[in-house]
Amino acid sequence: MRGTRFKEKVAACATAFAAVVAVMATAGPAHAAEFKVSDNCDVPWITCSYGDLWLFYNSKEIAVQNGTYMSAYATFYSNVSDHWGTSQYQGSTLSTYRYVFGNGGNGNGQYMKNNAASVQNCARDDNYRVYFNSGYGGTSQYFEKNGPYGDCSITNLISALKNNNASSHFA
Question: What structural domains and CATH numbers belong to the chain?
């Protein structure tokens, strides 16, 4: 009698296991998509209407020479809490946008977070701060809005932030 109950329990466990395996095999896989952008306005869920902050891979002495951009750069038109990128579910797909330096030149394709050496604020109305930590924390540097003549001067990041930039925010 005992042997029969044991066999019934084993058979029941095997049936339950087979059912779980069958469900797992037919369940749809989770989808993930990753994109690289050098402008946060290329992220579908970000609304860009203010600002114009450029972060360059090289310091200002190398970034612009004789009026030509020699360094790759990334542009931001709003607050960016993490220079690594942003993610959001769109339906069943997790879409992640990583910020990289683009537009050719030195550093093209490199990830932006903790790689910038200089900044250019071309915003007419907005001042910016670049921060050491994600989420607008730690040491920061202030960049005044564009001058009245559209000069968009480029400035080196201070030593505490050079290649240690993690977020930027309207100041």
Answer: 2-170 (2.60.20.10)
Q: What is the pLDDT of residues 117-143, one digit of tens each?
A: 999 998 888 899 999 999 999 999 999
Among the residues of the chain, which ranges form H helices?
2-26, 60-63
List the structure tokens of 117. Answer: 């050496």
Count CB-CB contacts under 10 A for residue 22: 10
d(C-alpha 41, C-alpha 61), whole Å: 28
How far is Cα 171 from Cα 152, in angstroms, rounded to an integer?
17
Q: In terms of Cα–Cα distance, which of 51, 61, 52, 38 is closest to 154?
A: 61
φ and ψ of 97, to 5 deg: -115, 115
Of 93, 53, 94, 49, which is closest to residue 74 (Cα–Cα)?
53
pLDDT tens digits, 1-43 = 555 554 554 444 444 444 444 444 444 456 789 999 999 999 9
